[in-house]
Amino acid sequence: MLKHEIERKFLVKILPKNWRALPHVKVRQGYLVIAQDRTEIRVRQKGKIYLQTIKSGGDKTRLEIEIKITKKQFDALWPATKNRRVEKMRYFVPHAQKSIEKIEMDLYQGSLKGLKVVEVEFPNQKASNNFKKNDWFGREVTLDRNYKNQNLALYGLPKKCYN
């Protein structure tokens, strides 16, 4: 599936009320290729769903091509991502705003444990520009490349990563 993703990313200042009750899934993601222009080819496991994704470089707006693959294909590609991986628990945060497509909160695991981010996807640039963050959102890191998953996978936690 080909789509333009318009997204903003924030650190989580305070976990939202009842966050443990939110629907969630474990995500494992590994990078096969990270090009000079930051275009990436990755494989991802979201629960029992396996995907190969190509994402263009960029900040707020990126082109994304996502292809479902089998567990067998994922297992064959996964070793090639060694030392370029992230693991996180992804929570799906409900919202009632038409100007938002989805809100997902990621609590990272492994060497990135302690990092908490929330990503908000929008249907268009106008909605993204007009968005007012929730009280539990911390500092915006959309334009900070240290918080891109590919950089987290390669270099670990940024030195100043909290709020």
What does this structure look like?
The protein is mainly beta and 163 residues long. Helices cover 12% and strands 44% of the residues. It has three helices and nine strands; from the N terminus they run βββββαβββαβα. It has an eight-stranded antiparallel barrel. 21% of the residues are buried.
CATH class: Mainly Beta
- Spell the H/E element sequence: EEEEEHEEEHEH
Q: Give the CATH H-level superfamily.
A: Hypothetical Protein Pfu-838710-001
Structural class: mainly beta
Portion in beta strands: 35-45%
Global geometry: globular
Domain unit count: 1
What helical percentage do the residues reach? 10-25%
N- and C-termini, Cα separation = 34 Å
- The CATH architecture is Beta Barrel
- Give the overall average pLDDT: 93
Q: What order do the strands of the largest sheet run in, or round the barrel if closed? A: 1-5-4-3-2-6-7-8
Uncertain segments: none
Number of strands: 9
The CATH topology label is Hypothetical Protein Pfu-838710-001
Compute the number of helices: 3
What composes the largest sheet?
8 strands, antiparallel, barrel
Structural key phrases:
163 residues; mainly beta; 8-stranded antiparallel barrel; 44% strand
